[in-house]
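tool=predict chain=A
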Amino acid sequence: MDILRRNTDYALRLAVNLAGRYGDGSVSTRALSDEEDVSYQLACKLMQRLHKEGLVESDMGPKGGFRLARPPQEVPILAIIEAIQGPLRLNRCLLGDGACQRQDGCPIRARIGRLQEQMDQYLGAVTLGELAQSRRPAQKSTRRRRRK
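tool=predict ok
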């Protein structure tokens, strides 16, 4: 089981691409999908989700596209993750009160809870700006995709 879903990974790649272009204007979804090897339809869906969550802004028209809503150094990757797949939890008992009948006094919940806090702190501290600075050009996939 993956903790980060495939769509979340794709959304992170798209967002890091935008972070690397911050201040250069909008980027079309087609350009993002081509550069990050994400299907155009999925890239559209992911960008719409990030827009709905206020993480990106959009411009309409022939020169339209998307750009980050805030400077990349102010956008933690946890925000992208949660926008796409919701809260990232190691165990269902960490979702909140009442998720498990045995949560009171459970030694497992206490230990996993500490790990959850560390993971949240780490992902909340890593920003798109950091990832954009260490970004290498993407390797294009050799698989063929159908275009619509």
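The beta strands are 56-59, 65-68. The mean pLDDT is 88.
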